[in-house]
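assembly run, all chains below
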Amino acid sequence: MKSTTLASAADAAAAVPKAQFDWKPLALLAAVMLLAVPAIGSGSTWLTLTVAGLAMGFIVFVIASGLTLVFGLMDVLNFGHGVFIALGAFVATTVMGGMAGFSAQGGWQSLLVVFGAMLAAMVVAGALGWAFERVIVRPVYGLHLKQILITMGGMIVGEEIIKVIWGPLQIALPLPEILRGSYLIGDAAIEKYRLLASAIGAVVFVALVWTLSRTKIGLLIRAGVQDREMVESLGYRIRRLFVGVFVAGSALAGLGGVMWGLYQQNVSPQIGGQVTVLLFIVIIIGGLGSTLGCFVGALAVGLVANYTGFLAPKVALFSNIALMVAVLLWRPQGLYPVTNR
Amino acid sequence: MTHNLLELRGVHTHIGAYHILHGVDLAVPDGQVTMLLGRNGAGKTTTLRTIMGLWPASKGELRFRGRRLNETATPDIAAGGIAYVPESMGIFTDLTVKENIVLAARSARHEDELDRARLDWIFGLFPALKKFWLFPAGKLSGGQKQMLAVARAICEPRALILIDEPSKGLAPSIIQNLISAFRELKSQQTTILLVEQNFNMARALGDTVAVMDNGRVVHAGAMAELAVDEGLQQRLLGLSLGAHQ
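ok done. output:
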């Protein structure tokens, strides 16, 4: 047989019309930012709000990415996702509190403590995710109503356990000295922590996109989102993939919990429940199961929340819902709908 | 004498409260193409899905290469050498043609690890797949999707291929293309169990035939015999080959 290289297959493919990347949702994001310029009036205020909105969006993306993957692949409505957020945040209080002496040396030591707290939060939240999937989620695969009820129940139990361990009161989670304050660009103040949160969010996004598009595990996840049965018929154990994705999603929620806690500089047992509705808004806007959609949706939510918070604080209370309604009127399946869903 | 690669004995399948298969007896000889015919709702698709473990048999026995399949999970059945092309084709529409093939080739982690010679052979059977290699599978035409579905099943050597109504809704020229591809597979002694409503396709490809009705196999024998016996066709299928020519 004559051997044809895949490069020539690629050449042949070049002769056919390429599938176009859908830029419209990204253009919408850019349009929102540009339209805010004249509305806000001041360039420096716009820059401050935009960076704050993007930072909030990046944090929300980190938390929501696991939720959208879990729903997309496993068809599980996990209303208990918030417990991993809360757990991550509380683990961070313990790690950062326990290493306060080391952190007090300042500089790279305090940054190391923050990253150590994030790692610990991911490990603990991932471990809880493994148990949560086995005990709570596995018996209700395919049963949406039961999933909602039992995962909400799981979150309530989880919150109570957190209260038993860390107490019912709010705990401070102060930023280390190195992350306090802002960089000044002209009159615009860009908070240091928001830059770090944005960088972490960007790294998570790139890592997720790379994994999903360049690895076989990623292919399996994308395929499983569309047709679980066919993935099994090709010889892959989708249950193991389910567990892996659930654990990864829980770990990301734990990481997001630390980031959210540091963003607010305090944590409470209800921190997870408070953001759950926001997370569902984000993954619905993005298109259920879509990582890119989740990313764009989270940034849009962050930006709109910050712009409306400045321009019309009363409107900000329902700006996310309004954004969701507007997006769904435009694209009923979300910004980047996953086919077959 | 040809031995049976796959055997079903008295297989019953329930889907929820519905009793679909009522004791299916079926033998698929090694290296041959076995046609599974029957009216709509006869139980053909359920039989294939039961073999794959997607709907477990509630009674009876399934044996593949002499090994009992009943309690085997679908991934293990597939890993054991059975490929399945469902009626819906099961194409991952958000993935490219290349990604669909990489996923189906269990031994390959990425494109570079695909068996190039086998890929060339597939491109020879289905040139459109080479042309649209980097194209999202969801953008392919119905015929091209069917080609991709079959290509996934044969991108690595498999002992048995189950194919459910590949000609459904396709233009005659595409059907002819598929028949040519299946003939080439047949010439390589690939065992195929093919569900088909298109009697001409069945006649062109089949070595043996099983006809189902009401969840049972009501006739089994050589395809050549059924192809020339219009009375039997009329009785079993409610049609005669003459009407399809």
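The domain at 22-330 of chain A is CATH 1.10.3470 (ABC transporter involved in vitamin B12 uptake, BtuC).

Residues 1-14 of chain A have pLDDT under 50 and may be disordered.

not gonna interpret more than that til we talk
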